[in-house]
Amino acid sequence: MQGDTTVQAEHLAHQFQLEGSIESITVFGTGHINDTFRIKNSDTTAPDYLLQRINHLVFPDVGPMMENIAKVTEHLKAKSSSQYTSLTIIPTREGRLFCKDEHGNYWRIFIFMKDLISYDIVETTEQIYEGGKAFGAFLRDLSDISAADLFTTLSRFHDVPWRVGNLRQAVKRNVKNREEASRKLIRFAFDQAERMSQVQKLGDQGRLPLRVTHNDTKFNNVLLDRNGKGRCVIDLDTVMPGYVHFDFGDGVRTSVSTAAEDEKDIDKIQIDLKRFEAYSNGYLEATRNILTPLELELLPLAGAMLAYIMGIRFLTDFLMGDVYYKIHHPEQNLQRARAQLTLCDRILERMDDLKAII
Description:
Helix content: 40-55%
Number of helices: 11
Number of strands: 10
Structural class: alpha+beta
Order of helices and strands: HEEEHEEEHHHHEEEEHHHHH
Strand content: 5-15%
């Protein structure tokens, strides 16, 4: 950060209850939603901090979202027997969870965890196990909070029937004349719609417990210590009411595939059963005592469901003219949709193996 930007960041930082004094402020991380900066403290006895500009276009209800995060982090900190730590929000000098600048941007500060590391790419099955265990412990340690007490930050985020409805509208409108190019994927999406809607429909019927879920369980949202042990779940903006399959499924989707999310060569897209077993072992070690028989029965389907959701979201955006996701070439959303729906299909092909592992 240079010049006026540094001055603005320092001005914002001084609105919060920081210890010590600011030595430097630098851009931090690889996140795609919020802008994040590390505040290095000149006082070695005081912590460093993370300053974030919240993307209020993605998260328009900043107040309720921050209240969710505060409720969850305070509850997790009270679990003194847990091996896991939690984020710490630094309040403003007025005691608020965030501040708003003169341009209408929202800002918050967390304590920076110096000795913990995140990985954008999974390197070992041991890491996958630790990631699964950390996300499972997150669900377990929040299982005594009523999901009804939390605000729904992103409405219908993982609601498959609603997502399918959006796809049907996009196909019907066909605003960019792209229906023909994506016809095979559209057919697969509609053929699988009923099967992929099971969790939502059972939840709507009250047969699955509504839980406090993370809803964005990518591997880089777990911090590990220097010994490779999971210690902290981060990126809590999407914490809200949901079903366990949302978290388990997204962890599977992002951990077990042998290819990138937008892999062009679909022959490279397979699932690694050893990775699935590692993630499942970790997740169930933490959660097996709280999950219901029906939740466990549906876990093998969860990875396919989350790959399906991402696939039809990409496909819908392609048909609508790429209005939501950033693209680097004209058919990237189609490529992403093909990769995710192929991953969904690959997981479904191995369903018997996944059930045996669970």
